[in-house]
Amino acid sequence: MNRALLIHPGITAHSHLDRLQLILLTSDDRARWERLVADDPGGHVLQCWAWGELKRAFGWNPLRIALWDTAGDRLVAGAQVLLRPIPWTGSLLAYIPRGPVLNWADASLCQTFFASLHAFLRARKVAVLRMEPAVPESIGPSSLQQGKHLIVFWRPVWRCLGSYPRPASHQDGLSAHAGPGATASDDCY
Questions:
Q1: Domain boundaries in the chain?
Q2: How far apart (Å, rounded) are the C-alpha atoms in residues 36 and 49?
Q3: Which tens digits make up the pLDDT trace of 139-184?
Q4: Hey, how many other C-beta atoms are within 10 angstroms of the C-beta on 152?
Q5: Which CATH number fits domain 5-154: 3.40.50.970, 3.40.630.30, 3.30.1120.10, 3.40.30.10?
Q6: Dihedral sign, CA of 170, 175, 176, 178?
Q7: ∠25-64-125 over CA atoms, to 5°?
Q8: Exposure on the CB side of residue 113, measured as CA atoms within 13 A
């Protein structure tokens, strides 16, 4: 695991999670990633390394982001995130097909993973995250079960367009949301 890029060390106050680090996997970590996906009951072929490489041929940039347990020397959660530019915005769309791969029953692990993932994606100018989480029926509401999509908007994309025309209803609401004297680009990266 020495070639993986450390993204965020010790990101939680939960004692059993203090040893977790968010890492960006490299091609040298492919076997570890495939083992994580294969060993997880909710693991899906769309989270496999080869799927990400196939999507690369169609304009997506696949990243494999994982929580690394430094004490156990293993991956405990992760997501293959596909990134694609949103035209005219300077922002990115992130897509997690049939994932992430994690123990949905462990609320602390889920909170740690999503908080870290959020910080990682925001730092890379991701405006929208689309997920198809594989949450078991016994854990999540029906809206998060197999086959459902979850879309998270971190930034209103129209605000990042600068002088590009926006709906009139959004023109008046800009100052109310961003504060007096705000411009369309104030809320962008």
A1: 5-154
A2: 11
A3: 655 544 445 556 665 555 445 555 445 455 544 444 344 444 444 4
A4: 14
A5: 3.40.630.30
A6: positive
A7: 110
A8: 22
* C-alpha angle 42-30-97 in degrees, rounded to nearest 5: 40
Provide CB contacts within 8 A for 121, sequence distance 6+: 81, 94, 129, 154
Backbone torsions φ then ψ of 157, nearest 5 degrees: -60, -35
Rama region for 162: left / alpha / beta (φ>0; ψ in -120 to 50; rest): left
Inter-CA distances, 41 with 54, 80, 94, 125, Å = 23, 16, 24, 32
Q: In the numeric block, which tokens belong to residue 8?
A: 């965020």
* CB-CB neighbours of 87 under 10 Å: 9
> Rounded to whole angstroms, how far apart are CA atoms 127 and 59?
18
> DSSP letter string over 55-101?
HHTTT-EEEEEEEEETTTTEEEEEEEEEEEEETTTTEEEEEETT--B
**pTM greater than 0.85 (yes/no):** no
- For 58, other C-beta atoms within 10 Å of its C-beta total 8
